[in-house]
Amino acid sequence: MRLNRFDPSSINVRGGGGGGFPGGAGGGIGCGTLVIALIAALVFGVDPTSMLSGGGSEQTVPATQGDGSARSVEQLCTSNQYATEACNALQSLNQTWQPEFQRAGIPFQQPTLVFYSGGTRSSCGGATSAMGPFYCPADQGIYIDTSFYDQMARQLGAGGDFARYYVIAHEYGHHIQYLTGVADAIRSAQGQNPRAANQLQVRMELQADCYAGVWAGKNRNLIDHGDFEEGMTAASAIGDDALTGGRVSAENFTHGTSRQRMEALQAGMETGNDAVCDRYVDVR
Fold first, then answer.
1. End-to-end CA distance of the chain
2. Could you tell me the CA-to-CA distances from 189 to 2, 52, 171, 195, 196 in Å, in that order?
3. Is a pLDDT exceeding 60 seen at residue 27?
4. Where is pLDDT greater, at 196 or 244?
5. Which residues, listed in sequence order, are joined to residue 114 by a DSSP beta bridge?
6. CB atoms within 10 A of CB 82
7. What is the mean pLDDT of residues 248-262?
8. What sign has the CA pseudo-torsion 34, 35, 38, 44?
9. How many CA atoms lie within 13 A of 210 on its CB side?
């Protein structure tokens, strides 16, 4: 996908620390270190003990310079190829979604892209890179350790720039849900009906996949040959059924099957219309 280079003055980016798990979780997520590790082990098929030790990474984005001073947006975004891609995607996502919010009369606020290495602490609690990228509504941050992309390519066979853009666009989809109130509505519904919590979570994840597809669909003039296939491969690889290999029953799925995720991404890409994503969540 041929995205324009980011403008440092137009995006919100910061470093989130690194060097291993920061120890314990704060408010928001409400999960301790071990719980986070076990969840990620089920979802990503990784060894939870390697997560708890922090682990190494091939491509990381340090939050500070050698003298300990904070790094600029330009420095963070050019730390490696993956960081530059993420910043390019963030700018494109902002430029795509802000006008949609304006037309709908909904206040828009850009999210913050937070680069970290190994482990970090967000307003939603602590996290390790083995968890993969995540969105924290408490600080409207999209958190990522860019070494995850190497893991995604090696372990899941989901490589290519569009596969990486899909990851960022999916997390941005959760930001959209936060701004529109869908995320709060889902959390409320889960509290009222705990037995349906996983099913409701799947709906929210599929809508985020759909929103990722809508972004691509609205920028189809920038899509290269093979991008669609990269997106479908990534969506298939991160389906709950594919990641757990049958070790987890369908009622415990939290993100959707490979087929569901592929269909959601494709629906958004083919139409470029965010209204099609309403089919996944009926709580507005």
1. 32
2. 40, 32, 21, 10, 8
3. no
4. 196
5. 14, 143
6. 21
7. 81
8. negative
9. 23
Task: Name which of 227, 203, 225, 204 is nearest 215 in CA terms.
Answer: 227
In which band, very low, low, confident or very high, does the pLDDT at 237 lie, cut at 50, 70 and 90?
Answer: confident
Tokens of 235: 């969506």
pLDDT per residue over 44-97, tens digit each?
A: 333 333 333 333 333 455 555 544 457 899 999 999 999 999 999 999 999 999
* Residue 224, Ramachandran bin (φ over 0: left; ψ between -120 and 50: alpha; else beta): beta
Place of tokens 């290269």: 224
3-state secondary structure string across the chain: CCCCCCCHHHCEEEEEEECCCCCCCCCCCCCCHHHHHHHHHHHHCCCHHHHHCCCCCCCCCCCECCCCCECCHHHHHCCCHHHHHHHHHHHHHHHHHHHHHHHHCCCCCCCEEEEEECEEEECCEEEEHHHCCEEECCCCEEEECCCHHHHHHHHHCCCCHHHHHHHHHHHHHHHHHHHHCHHHHHHHHHHHCHHHHHHHHHHHHHHHHHHHHHHHHHCHHHCCCCHHHHHHHHHHHCCHHHHHCCCCCHHHCCCCCHHHHHHHHHHHHHHCCHHHHHHHCCCC
Tell me how long the chain is. 284
CB atoms within 10 A of CB 24: 10
For residues 253 and 147, the model is more confident at 147
The answer to whether residues 29 and 40 touch, using CB atoms and an 8 Å cutoff, is no
User: At 237, which amino acid appears?
Assistant: A
Separation of alpha carbons 22 and 253, rounded Å:
28
Contacts of 46 (CB under 8 A, 6+ apart): 40, 130, 155
Range ranked top by mean pLDDT from 80-94, 151-165, 184-198, 225-239: 80-94
Cα 171 from chain centroid (whole Å): 3
